[in-house]
Amino acid sequence: MSEKALWFIIFLLLYVAYCFFWGVRGSRNTDNPEKYYLANRSVSAWVFFFAATAATFAGLTTLAHTGLIFHDGFQYVGTSFIAITVPLGSLFFFKRQWMLSRKYGYITPGEMYYDYYKSDAIRIISVLVTFFVAIPILAVLFGATGFLVSTLTDGYVSRELSMWVISAIVLFYVTAGGFKSTVSVGVLQSWLFMLTVLILGLVTYSFIGSFEIFGNALSKIASTPISAWGKTNGYGGGDYNGYFAIPGVIQWVAGLGKNEAVGGPWTSMMIFTYTLSFMGVILSPSFSMWSYSVKHPKVFSYYQIWGSAAVVGALLFIFSTFQGVGSNLLGANAEINSLGLSISNILPEVSRSDHSLILGHIINLIDEKALWLTGLLMVGLIAALQSTAAAFLMTSGSIITRDLYKPYVEKDLKWEKERSVARIIMMLIFLASLYLATFAKPAMIIFSGISISIAFQFLIVLLGLVWFPWITRGGAIFGIIIGIIIVILTETIGQQITGNRLPWGRWPLTIHSGVWGLLFNVFVCFSISAFSSITKVDIYRSHREKFHDFLNDHMGLHPSRTKLKSFAYVLTLIWLFFGIGPGQILGNSFFGEPEAGYESWILKIPSIWGYQLIWWFFGIGLIWFLASKMDLSTLPNKPIQVNDLYKKPDDIQGEVNYIDKIGTGYGWILILIGMAIFSIIFYIYLV
């Protein structure tokens, strides 16, 4: 056994011991459904901050993001705005769902959907979506774990063996300790995820040498046509290297597999629709359930502002970008090497189809100097993958038990048996996902590709639930069904089902499948709801309005800030337009044209990257403003009393400490500090 493999095993055993500790400890406190499924609704601010951040992003971005930046360049960096759109989505739904769960004692979203819409169909749809979302994503995450271990140990341990053995760790602590163990282990996984991405970014930067060397090397490449997609040929306001520019606002193409976009697929519309569709992660029933578990809704603001927008944004926009772009300069790109434009050749050449190998090669750079660190980073990547896997396994098993087995198979289910059933269902989901990852890899890839887009269709169900009482049961049901069908037809699976007879390919008009589905979802839902209202056949309108009356009574905007509502709408629309919408195209040359040379780059980095960093920073401010000043993630304005363990706002305010005030009173201070830091950086660049 090599010394590298030995260090990996040492850190893996320490990680496994921690997981087993929380699995055993959590199992001692599972004597009722709320404790097992929701950690007794008492997850603290800092635990949710770390665990939810890792669960939402770590597994879905750690490997893919760096590899795709290596392949597609700065146009793909625009997808890093998921760090803003994901919390933006949670802002509009988490607090209101929490209030309803406290008022009526809901444990799963399906219970809430059924109670509000009076529909078994929506409850069953939520179970089916949970099932078909969880298993493919779990398969990808478990498969990536095995692939990672096999690659980093040079084949010493096979993909299948490592996948089955290491993934069993997740099954143990999730089934044994429930949600408490899941979030407790999630804290460590979050630390490892953040530390790993940070260190790998710094390692890449250290081998590059300096910002000046980095910028000069990129400017030389920008003047050539070297990129996976060639040049933009006028799309985006100029004939630029596709690696350094967004190829237009939208392109009228049939989509991937038919005729593809010129200069790359990541147009402004593609980035806009992709980042919105990624909201499906937190709109899915699996993550809606997380919103029921916290002590009070102010907890959400820490995750939204500082965990997602600030920390994950920095990891994706800065450190993952350094990894992906820097790999091209360190020998991984054969075309750049052939023209002598690389800084060094310390990385092996990687074909564009094998871009997922990039992270492994970067880790190997540390072998000669710190083998122990190599072992730690390997475990960090595994922990990142398992954080998301644990979240999906826990909530999907809980939802299937509570929303399918208990109401339709055995209604009078005692808690001890229900807990056993939940554990068995989680084990079956676990085995199904591993089977898919082992014996059906093509199916795993296809189904995982549509899972988040399908979950995104729950946007309309949630809008009706907490915002618009005029959305009817029939509208919500048929809307989500049509939305799911359209998602399938605008993805690769649609072509396979129809024998490639569809006139369009994947993501036609460079619009993501999730938004294609949502457009039809909205049209059908609103049409049916309007028809029901006109014909007065909506007999449950008064029932639904009781929920909205309760929400409005407890969540009204503070009187001192009602005048800010119009400003909030305008601010959000401006950010959506310039940050992730058509306005992105300005970033191609706003701070200097890509081929103009290093001296002409105002920020001494590619214009599009500087533009993205600035709007990411504005995005943090937007999330802070909406969460804290528009009361979307603050305490309710009055206590919730029925079926509730909730304390009065004054009592909670008296208990919080300094860190709990981050995001409210201290928000301006932190934003001013951030602005000062950015000003210093820009001053250094300019001088």
In brief:
The chain has helices spanning 3-27, 33-38, 45-61, 64-72, 74-77, 82-91, 94-104, 109-117, 120-152, 159-208, 211-222, 268-277, 280-283, 285-288, 298-329, 334-338, 358-364, 371-408, 415-439, 441-456, 458-466, 473-489, 492-497, 513-535, 541-555, 565-580, 607-629, 649-655, 667-686. Helix 1 (3-27) runs parallel beside helix 18 (371-408), helix 4 (64-72) crosses helix 15 and helix 6 runs antiparallel to helix 15 (298-329).
Structure, described:
67% of the residues lie in helices and 0% in strands. The chain is mainly alpha-helical and 687 residues long. It has one domain: Sodium/glucose cotransporter (Up-down Bundle), CATH 1.20.1730.10. α3 packs parallel to α15, α6 runs parallel beside α27 and α10 crosses α19. The longest helix is centred in the N-terminal third of the chain and has 50 residues. The radius of gyration is 25 Å and the shape is globular.
Topology record:
Elements: H1 3-27, H2 33-38, H3 45-61, H4 64-72, H5 74-77, H6 82-91, H7 94-104, H8 109-117, H9 120-152, H10 159-208, H11 211-222, H12 268-277, H13 280-283, H14 285-288, H15 298-329, H16 334-338, H17 358-364, H18 371-408, H19 415-439, H20 441-456, H21 458-466, H22 473-489, H23 492-497, H24 513-535, H25 541-555, H26 565-580, H27 607-629, H28 649-655, H29 667-686
Helix pairs in contact: 1-10, 1-18, 3-10, 3-15, 3-18, 4-15, 6-15, 6-27, 8-9, 9-10, 9-18, 9-19, 9-20, 10-15, 10-18, 10-19, 15-27, 18-19, 20-24, 21-22, 22-24, 26-27
